Amino acid sequence: PASDPHLVERARKAKEALGDRVFVLGHHYQRDEVIQFADVTGDSFKLAQQAAARPGAEFIVFCGVHFMAESADILTSPSQRVVLPDLAAGCSMADMATFDQVEECWEALEDAGLAGDVIPVTYMNSSADIKAFCGRHGGVVCTSSNARRALEWAFAQGKQVLFLPDQHLGRNTAVLEMGMSLEDCVVWNPHRPNDMGKVAEARMILWKGHCSVHGRFTPESVDDVRERIPGVNVLVHPECRHEVVLKADHVGSTEHIIKTLQAAPSGSSWAVGTELNLVKRLGQMFPDKNVSFLDKTVCYCSTMNRIDLPHLVWALESLALGETVNQITVDQDTARWAKVALDRMLALP
Ligand code: 13P
Ligand code: SF4
């Protein structure tokens, strides 16, 4: 539905009143009613870069989820404030790796005499304390647009990688982009004892986490769409299961998905396996191409959708009135180590 014109006007006025003091970042999975107010839209990597590149902005309003706002707080200066318009905008994948669970895993690796050769790599979709854990143990952060480079960097430092928390991004990158075999990967289950013999032999130790949205696409989704739309190109996000990515024609981050469609010939057909707000927007952005959702039974990311126009209006109006609401802050020690891992990512070639 179209956004409420009254709220649109209020958001516009509050943003205008704040001027250059505010910078609004919008992840591609955000609602249209929110995206229209973003100064920059992007994937997780681009948004982290953009947050770091805005030292003049007093307030960064992050229209995305909690781990992204935490990263923005870590990458900006102490005088800048990062605001998440709804604090309930978390990420179920990030919640699948808690600090205690990761510490327990590391202790088990130490007991088995393996930890010295393991480099932890965490997907951006993780809490700040997991990023700090990686910073402390010589590791790095990655996003879906630089996972391969981060893994290559990590393997140049050690023999094994502990990949947190998305097993699918880890497996898809290792097997499909780096030529490893499925046998090179072992899944670490934080909820039960793991076979340390198998762990010792693996090159990739994949944390048992996944995205609850992308995990719902199936290989059958791909077969069905190919039957329904002859000649369709299937384009999916690497958070999808390995069997799904294997059947797709293209794979990449949200930014990559947009660029692929931009470059596609007029009249071509595309079935896109990623979050629904983005797929709908792609249909509007490229009316000369036939864009469909890979599987109609998969829905929005409910936590990305928590950020809606009323929350954005409330955040902007509060800032304009001099009240900082929903500020996201990471404690100094965590921020220091998480920044080490984030800076390593930003410095990847
Ligand atoms: P990217 O935008 O980096 O592709 O990430 C996708 C995602 O799931 C963010 O939560
Ligand atoms: Fe987390 Fe998946 Fe939602 Fe991204 S799409 S915020 S990974 S649950």
From TrEMBL:
Molecular function GO terms recorded: transferase activity
Keyword GTP-binding: no
Coiled-coil residue spans: none
Keyword 4Fe-4S attributed: yes
Subcellular location: Cytoplasm
UniProt KW keywords: 4Fe-4S, Cytoplasm, Iron, Iron-sulfur, Metal-binding, Pyridine nucleotide biosynthesis, Transferase
Catalytic activity: iminosuccinate + dihydroxyacetone phosphate = quinolinate + phosphate + 2 H2O + H(+)
UniProt-listed InterPro entries: NadA, NadA_sf, Quinolinate_synth_A_type3
PANTHER family: QUINOLINATE SYNTHASE, CHLOROPLASTIC, QUINOLINATE SYNTHETASE A
Function: Catalyzes the condensation of iminoaspartate with dihydroxyacetone phosphate to form quinolinate.
Similarity field: Belongs to the quinolinate synthase family. Type 3 subfamily.
Full protein name: Quinolinate synthase
Protein species of origin: Nonomuraea typhae
